[in-house]
Each structure stands twice: as structure tokens, then as C-alpha cells.
Design goal:
By secondary structure, this protein is of the alpha/beta class. 40% of the residues lie in helices and 21% in strands.
């Protein structure tokens, strides 16, 4: 994972020690959302929309970026689609290029702690008006850990259900 301080776009800092420890810790608990978190690049809140557009243009597979404060706490989520929509408007470049990504990002993404159970996170998503193209932001002690796509989440839930069904059938046959 890389945290990009947009005041120095070329400077990329690798994942910090807290996040690295958390990834190791949560990979052992496959029922916690932290086990699914992908350590992805993130932006600091001083990043400008034009800088974020450049970052998205460099990686066509990148769809979301967490936006963090200077201590690594998630503040929001910037999606490629949001940024594209803003810049495609009539005066998009003039109005937004120099503005902070905070003006465009989702200010209320679903942010969960790495210890939350996958089923609980799934329930939070289904109980809210969650954009299914978005990502869940995963934190660890309040600091950014990574993102989980809805596709990843659904795949894991399906795998668990199939595994549970198989194990249940095995128990039944004994």
C-alpha cells in the first residue's frame, strides 16, 4: 500500500508499521473483514482533484482511493466515477482541478474496524443505502488498513456458505 501525499506527488511512502502488523494479525482470522482488506494506495487530504485524476489515469484498474488525514485516519473515499463526472461537466477543469479531493469525495463511506465480522459488515451494507460499486474502508485502531470491494465480500460469503454446506453434508453422512 502506498500513501500519497499530494503536496509531493512523486513521493510515495510504503505501508506503515501499524498497517503491516494489522495485515499479519487479521490474515489469521478469516471471519473478520480485515482478512479481506487489500492494502491499496491512499491519498492525503491535501491532494488536489487534478493530482487524483493523474493517479487514476496511471492505473485503469484503480476504482477507489481512501482519503486520509495526516495521521492516517480515513476521512472519505474518492471514486474514479465521481472524479470523471466532475471533470466532464462544462467547467469541470476550471472549477475542480485545483480544489481538494475533499470537495468531491464521499464524506460518509462505510468505515469498519478490521475486527468486524464479515457477516456484520454485510448486514451494515444491506441495511443502508450503500453504493454497490463502492468499497468498504477498513481501519485498524482508527488508522487506514485497506479497502474491500463488494465483489470480494460477496465471493467470501458465498465460499463460506458452500464450505458450510459441504461440511454439514459430511457431518450428516457420518
Amino acid at each position: 500500500s502506498q500513501h500519497i501525499s499530494c503536496s509531493h506527488l512523486s513521493e510515495m511512502v510504503s505501508i506503515d508499521d501499524v498497517s503491516a502488523r494489522a495485515l499479519v494479525e487479521w490474515t489469521g482470522n478469516d471471519h473478520a473483514i480485515g482478512a479481506l482488506a487489500t492494502a491499496q494506495m491512499s491519498l492525503t487530504s491535501d491532494c488536489r482533484c487534478e493530482q487524483a485524476r493523474i493517479i487514476f489515469s496511471r492505473d485503469r484498474h484503480l476504482n477507489s482511493l481512501a482519503v486520509l488525514d495526516n495521521k492516517g485516519k480515513p476521512l472519505g473515499l474518492l471514486q474514479r466515477e465521481q472524479l470523471t463526472e466532475v471533470f466532464s461537466s462544462r467547467y469541470g477543469d476550471e472549477l475542480y482541478a485545483r480544489r481538494s479531493v475533499i470537495k468531491v469525495m464521499n464524506l460518509q463511506p462505510l468505515i469498519v474496524d478490521a475486527s468486524e465480522l464479515i457477516d456484520q459488515v454485510s448486514q451494515l451494507i444491506t441495511d443502508s443505502d450503500f453504493d454497490m460499486r463502492s468499497h468498504v474502508v477498513v481501519s485498524y485502531y482508527g488508522r487506514y488498513l485497506g479497502l474491500v470491494s463488494i465483489r470480494q465480500l460477496l465471493k467470501k460469503i458465498t465460499q463460506d456458505k458452500v464450505s458450510y454446506a459441504r461440511n454439514g453434508l459430511m457431518e450428516f453422512k457420518k
